[in-house]
Model the fold of this input.
Amino acid sequence: MQASLEMMGETEIPKMGLRTLVRRAERRHFMTMLALMAPSVIFVALLFVIPILLFLFRSVDNAEIPTLLPKTAVALDTWRDGEIPGEPVFAALASDLHALKGSPDAALLGRRLNFAVPGYRRLITRTVTSLPGTQMASAKETLAAIDKSWLDPVYWRTLKSQSGRITDFYLLSALDLQRGAGGIEKVSGEQAIFMSLYGRTLYTAFGVTALCLLIGYPVAAVMAAARPAVANWLLSLVLIPFWTSLLVRTTAWVVLLQTEGLVNKVLLQLGVISEPLKLMFNTAGVFIAMVHVLLPYMILPVYSVMKGISPVHLRAAASLGANPATVFRTVYLPLTIPGVAAGCTLVFVLSLGFYVTPALVGGPGDQMIGYFIAYFTNSAVNWGLASALGVFLLLLIGVIYLALGKLVGFDKLKVR
Amino acid sequence: MCIKSIILSGMLSAIATSVCCADTLTVANNGGTVGTAQREAFFKPFAQVSTNTVVEDTFNQELAKLRSQIETGNLLWDVVSLTAINEATACEEGLIEKIDWSAYFAPKDFEGAGGFSECSIPNNLVSGGLVYDAAAIPASSAPRTWADFWNVQKWPGKRGMLYRAEQTLEVALMADGVAPADVTRILSSEGGVERAFRKLQELKPYIKWWKSGDESIRDILSGEVAMTFAWNGRVATANRSNNRKLQIVFEAGHVSGAQYFSVMKGTPKRPAATDLIKYSSSPTAQADYSRRIDYAPANAKAFALLGPETVATLPKDHLDKASFQSGKLYTEFWMNNGDALLQRFLTFAAQ
Done:
């Protein structure tokens, strides 16, 4: 005892304390871990998180109007809706617009305002080109003479409600809402498009997930129960379509399902049907093609969980007198729930964002939100609205994930 | 050693000079059969007569692709092929260069295709018209008008139409009895849009919408639809490559619009880009292009170089039956109302 104490005294360890040492070692371990993770964290942050945040910011960003019409934005502060603004406001607008003469900014401003009121683009470009260079006696009369639309309060209301640096315009539009004379109101029926679109997107995603589960679960069970050689064959049958391009698989369905396609021809010749079935350019086509494309995403997680279930459990249950149905219901099914939850989450989230397949095999009533995000991003160059639709799609996924997590437990949603 | 270094420096300077005076131009067009025809008729021969070479990129008329290049200052393209509305928008928003084409060509030669814009020159005329399969419908009972297209009692079967507001609304007005030349005026006046949608509503249960030119042809070839609205170049190409007898009825009225060639704003290769467009607008190149794709040349002088057989698939003799996608009224109407009309159209189609 004495000797050992003396020995310890010779080294310096006790002076520092064991706790400090452990802490230091832990810190070193933590730093190594950080250093090892750093590349992937930086990569994800730079190329994934930050761009997404920047794009989401576009849904409320409103740089054009306050920068291009600074004086008007200030002058409109005191304007009350419903009346025609006074001379100072007109003078401010005339001066702002005059500064845009000869610059493409006039068209950009017009484009931005045209999102809110169709026709605003021409009003702006026409006013800018027709504005006289000299000092005018009355800006109000000059502008009204160029276009009498300037005497319509709707154009001023739009300007005032959009003159801040941040706007709710895109978010409202993405919910089929707009700011009218009496505050926020619904857009007219013929323009309202997005609310039904979210509904349709959700409906399709739920339907596809349910079908994938219905078809995928037995397949996974057979694969898990099969001999290794057979299981490998089955697995490759699942994987080969999984590795094939989405476009190729969708186009293949077009060939198969069209009115004069293979499926209809075979059914007609067998006498099963007397006239061709409508299998494509409708909801049926979308479901068939999407389920086929997404099936591997269901089968693989379910299969991997099923493979881990020891047959001993099932035998034990059976030996205790449970019939096959009871064994399945009380033992097998609960054990496979993690795989089912993971597969459903994967298929559901992926199908929410689908747009190529519905565009190719769906009818006009089957387009999903992704199609419109792509349209507003690429063709209409209305990035604010595209981003607002993205915000709501993201929110939708978040809410469903939380609800699912509460229902089956977050630990079970992991894809293994 | 000394000789070697002299040879080496000589080679280096040779490379340097060749770099200095030969540009590699990047042209963006719609690709597909159009891209192939442009490569053979314009880009390859141009590379032989000049020191420049041409590489191609394809895009689907997404204006966002032009805008992002201009905004980031990272120009990928030098020359771009644009539709009428996109051209007008891009010109106004400063995405393409303003060029006075009357310095190189007589404006009257290009009037048939809508004339020069402030920025661009029309290259060819794409005509969308009533198409049927002569193998399925005999000539004696063939449809002659858009009203016939709407007549599903006499000609049963589905009708193919473009899944877009523009061109489709124009066709609906022609079916409602509006003369092709008046279509844009009626559409842009009070109640015109309502009238077009009302007419579309009549045919709607029978419409099979198509989203790409390929799809329109596939549907009529496979019998999915009995008649379709389709673009003439696609029809002629399909007839040739599938040995089929699709007929385009120009006299029913058609929607014709130029494809323009424009120079990207701020490209350092503007002179070479202008040269390429000049070459592509010459009568010989234009005639060569029309022979390959069957879209009408924008330069009227090219018609003289084309045989009567080729001219037959072009709307040359039916330009009085065209609703033109050009002019101030047309571009302003669609620039102002395009987004709102498309939104309304998509809602209408989905119901």
